Amino acid sequence: MKREHCNGFTLVEMAIVLLILGLLLGGGLTVLGSQLEQQRAKDTQRLLDEAREALIGFAIVNGRLPRPATSAVNGLENVAACATDLACSGLIPWTTLGTTKADAWGKILRYSVTPAFANANFLLNTVATKKIQTRDTGGALVYLAGQAGVCSAADPCVPVVVFSHGRSHWGTTEAGIAIPDGSGTNVDEDTNQTGGALGVTYVQRPSTEGTTALGGEFDDLVIWLPPGILFNRMVQAGRLP
To answer: Which residue of 4, 55, 66, 140 sits 20 to 30 Å from the alpha carbon of 159, by its own alpha carbon?
Structure first.
């Protein structure tokens, strides 16, 4: 009797097919995850830019910049004057500004403002205190805004910094829960968490997951408001000089 030929897959062939499908699916998920992170970064950058515009609008109306929020719940600026730069660093006062509370990762945006710009109406000669650093090609810290010395009208720093802690490390959830660092190598992100020792120094550089890079891994998104732009907008609005 003639044996009928079986047209089905053998177990080996099925295993190979499943292996290939698994590799394709894994690669697709990796690409999708990367695209989602890129979109979150873009969305967060847009929120930061909107916050900067809201700060300018607040200054035009009030003659000063707002102080940080004291609560992760209501988003209102602190009613008390800031005694130091550290006291003027915290959560963005989203309710006071009418802006979005959190970044695309669900972390409340961070905010640091020069006390002299937030405690009273500022003038064209009011001195800002915030400094922005980055890493050069050799990994050394260099200044994007401000300098190593004391800030002055002749050598200006910036009045305000707004930033997101990004996907990993540090931050505060929308429920007000502090997120632990979770890394011992992210030196530049640690700087942003506290604004350096005095609440005045911040770092912005390209994102990297490399723990061996100088400054460690980094995914923060940092923006600032140059004094020239703030002053020009205030002059145009008739609020200065």
So the answer is: 140
